[in-house]
Structure formats: C-alpha cells, structure tokens
Specification:
Order of helices and strands: HEHEEEHHHHEHEEHEHEHH
Number of strands: 9
Helix content: 25-40%
Radius of gyration: 22 Å
Oligomer: single chain
Organism: Diaphorina citri
Structural class: alpha+beta
Distance between the termini: 30 Å
InterPro entries: Phi-like, Prp3_C, RWD_dom, RWDD2A-B_C, UBQ-conjugating_enzyme/RWD
Pfam families: Prp3_C (PF06544), RWD (PF05773)
CATH class of the largest domain: Alpha Beta
Domain RWD: 30-149
Number of domains: 2
Strand content: 15-25%
Protein name: RWD domain-containing protein 2A
Length: 329
C-alpha cells in the first residue's frame, strides 16, 4: 500500500505568536462573556469547572505564577427545534493565535454522521484566520450545516442513516464468533488485515475521538498512541480497515503514512476463526510517558515501555519497522 504524506496544521510548532499569553487569555474571557450573554438560558452555557474563569483572572492580574487550566466549556443548542447539540469547546492558552478545539455531540446523529460532521467542522475551524476570535463564527456555521448530516427517518434517510449504535467489541463477542454459514456476507471476512500507521504527531482530541468512534463502528481492534510521534495499529476485515484508513488519512495532517500492511487470506474453515487472528481485544488509547516528559505538553513516549507492550502482543518486530533500530525493554 502506498504511504500518505499530508500537511497538518492541527498543532502548529513553528508559529510565532503575535499576542502574549496574557493578551490571549484576556480575549478569551471577553469572548466567553459574549457567549454567556448569547446563551443565557439555564443549562445552555456550562463551564467544565466554575473556578476556571477566576483562575484565569488571577493569572492576568499577576497574582499567580503558574499557568491556569485551559478554559473548557459546553454550549447546548437546539437546531430547527429537533436537533439537540452539545458543542464542546477547549481553548488552548494561545488561542486565538492558534485554533481552538471544537467538536459536537448529539443523540440525533448516528456515530458515522457525528464523525463526518466533526471532520468537516475541524476543517472549518482550521480555515479561520489566526489572531481573530472565531467561536461565534464557528457556532453559526454549526447551526447552518448540521442539518446536512441529519435525517429524521424519511424514506431517503432510512437506507443511508441508522440510529446511533454501539457495536460489541471483540472481547464482548469472542465466544460468539459467527460461523461461515451464518455470515451475512462471508466474502467480507476472506481477508484479515492489520495496518501499522505512523504520524509525525497526534495531539488533537477531535482526531483521537474520530479514530475511536470509527473503530467501534467498524469492529476494528488495535490502539492509538498519541504524542510525538503518533503510532496507530488497526486490525479487522480488509474492507473495514481500508474504509477506516481512508477516512482518517483524509483529515489534515503534517505527516501520516502506513508503514506496513499485514494480510491473511482465509479459507472457509479459517473464517470461522476470524477473530483468532487479532492481536488486540479492542481499540483504545495507550500511553507510555517518559519520566522526564511533561505529559501535558510534549507527549514523548517511553520507548522501553512501548517495546515491552509490543512484545507482550507478539508484535516486537514492528519496533524496528518504526524506528530503525532494535527495541530494549
């Protein structure tokens, strides 16, 4: 499989801010005050922690040396009297010099709709001009565009859109592996695939959530190791892995590529044992922080612990594929 090599702006590394951190935080408080006045009904504007604003104000007044926590809040709105949305907003300290993280949750959207909408939302946020507050513009865009991803059960939507469901993981169904004769489309299970993916870095909460949601939707197992570099492994049917990889690699990345694809062609008897080819029981985030690493900022992995993890999963051979040298636990 050919590697993808794509530009990413999700975590700018060489941008020189035009505003100081104090100026950024002052602008954030001004924008939050405006949003609170716009969404003033009870339950519409919810701060993750009520002390956040006080802590930021204390820092701005130079009465605190340590940086305050990031400002996190949720805005709850209803679009066209039927689509209830939770708009989750995370403001990095240097916003608006860098982009905010924004994603939407809704019980009226199935998992695929929600993921696709958040991918488009992420592109819209990244397109906004730096150093200018953009939250109102983004919220307005959400209200105008979410209807394009929603179906209220009309005839057209019945065939394309299904209610949000949480499919059982491999660990939940490993004792109930379907037989060849009962598979709805047995050809889908004729090839078991495992993709090993490398990214320059994985920081964005939106991208990480998309990876987890798509994996659950497609019964894909594996892991994502956020940080710098970012490492991902997915495994499942060939069709599901191709679909997952297509959607993820088409997000905005600085660099992402598939280092290795392992494929196993299965005959009729092997299809009954499809899940026995898996190295992982579910798809989840893992973390191996170096003791010298700042977990909140640089996310550099502990190489020894990662090699130990791969060894336990009988995948130690991939360490050299990723880094060019043999691992040591």
């Amino acid at each position: 499989m050919e590697s993808s090599d794509i530009i990413d702006t999700d975590q700018p590394e060489n941008i020189t801010p035009t505003l100081s951190i104090t100026e950024c935080l002052e602008l954030q408080l001004q924008e939050i005050e405006m949003l609170q006045s716009m969404f003033a009904n009870p339950g519409e504007f919810i701060m993750f922690n009520e002390t956040m604003i006080d802590n930021v104000q204390t820092f701005i007044s130079e009465q605190s040396e340590g940086l305050p926590n990031h400002l996190d809040f949720t805005i709850k709105i209803t679009v066209e009297d039927k689509i209830k949305l939770n708009i989750c907003i995370h403001l990095p300290h240097m916003y608006p010099c860098i982009e905010p993280e924004i994603f939407v949750r809704s019980d009226q959207l199935n998992r695929r709709q929600e993921t696709d909408f958040n991918l488009d939302l992420n592109k819209m946020v990244l397109s906004q001009e730096r150093n200018i507050m953009c939250l109102y513009t983004v919220i307005d865009w959400i209200q105008e565009n979410v209807v394009n991803f929603y179906s209220d059960g009309n005839l057209f939507g019945i065939f394309l859109l299904t209610p949000k469901v949480f499919l059982p993981s491999y660990s939940q169904r490993k004792n109930q592996v379907p037989t060849y004769s009962t598979l709805k489309d047995s050809r889908k299970y004729e090839t078991f695939s495992r993709y090993w993916i490398y990214s320059h870095h994985i920081y964005s909460k939106i991208k990480r959530k998309a990876m987890l949601d798509l994996a659950a939707d497609m019964n894909i197992t594996g892991f994502v190791l956020p940080g710098k570099p970012g490492i991902v492994c997915i495994e499942g049917t060939s069709l599901d892995c191709e679909d997952w990889w297509y959607r993820i690699r088409n997000m905005t990345w600085k660099k992402i590529l598939c280092k290795k694809v392992e494929e196993f062609q299965l005959d009729k008897t092997a299809i009954d044992r499809f899940d026995s080819y898996r190295k992982f029981e579910d798809f989840k985030e893992i973390a191996f922080y170096n003791s010298k690493s700042n977990m909140k900022q640089d996310y550099h992995m502990d190489m020894g612990e990662f090699f130990k993890f791969l060894t336990e999963k009988q995948c130690a051979y991939m360490f050299k594929e990723y880094f060019g040298f043999d691992g040591k636990s």
